[in-house]
Each structure stands twice: as structure tokens, then as C-alpha cells.
Amino acid sequence: MASKFDRFTVSERRPAYRPVVVRERTDGYGAEEVNRLLLDVEQILEAQVRGMDAQVQRLRTALARREAELAELANLADRRGSAAAEELSARATRLDEQAREIAALKSEVKAAGETLMQSRQESDDRAAVQAQRIAELEGMLADMRGSTSWRVTRPLRWLGRLGGRG
Fold this sequence. Notes:
Layout lengths: L7 E3 L10 E4 L6 H115 L2 H5 L1 H12 L1
Antiparallel strand pairs: 1-2
């Protein structure tokens, strides 16, 4: 589709990069009007480019700020990670120490249990021996009390108790 400006021949650009209309092809807009319109368009485009440059600069600044924040967060994460790793290592060491203490306590409890069982067995053996001895002595006492001499000397024992009171 042809534009209104197709009838003009544009020469090469000047050092300021402004197109200049050299001659008109047909009737219509004058060269001055076209040059003025081109300058207006150029000014509008330059203003838009400056605005975009300013926006690009703001975005670069924001990006640099975000990158700095990200680097700071990464450093913080590294420091926290290092601290967490150190704490984890310390806790693992403590757990190992506690595991050794538990193993030592278990062996002590086992040894104490074995000693207790041995002592209990010895105590049970002594109690059995003593119970047997008591049974023997009770048997001897019963035999003695059932004997004739014991029955015959009963009045003498009674008189001895009465005489001891007085």
C-alpha cells in the first residue's frame, strides 16, 4: 500500500541523520512541510528512544540491585548452611559420644545383672543350707524334748526358774 509520502525522493542523510526532501515528484505536500513533519517525527522518536534509554537504565539499576540482593541472600544461605553443617557435625559427634556412653552403661548393667544373679544364686544356696541346718537343729531339739531325760528333769528346770527369780 502506498503512503502519502511516496511521491517524494529522499536524498542521503546528513551528519545529523535527518532525511531531507530534495524535490517533489507531484503536487501535494511541499518539501518544507515534509521536512518539518520528518523533524517532528524524528523528535518524537528521539524522545521515545530517550524514554526507552531511561527505562533501560532504570531496569539495569533494578537488575543490579536484585543481583546484589540475590548475592547477599546466597552469602547468607552459605553462612547459614555452614553454620547448620557445623551444628550438624557437632550434634553427630555428641550422638556418637552418647552412643558410646549408652553402650558402656549397657555393659555395666549387664555385668551388674550377672553379678546380681550370681549373688542371688549364692544367697539362695546359703539359705537352702541354713534351712537344712535349721531343720536338722529343730529335729534334734524335738528329739531332745521327746527324750525321757528331758521329761524327768522337767521339775528340776521349773524349780531352777523359780529359784532364779527370788
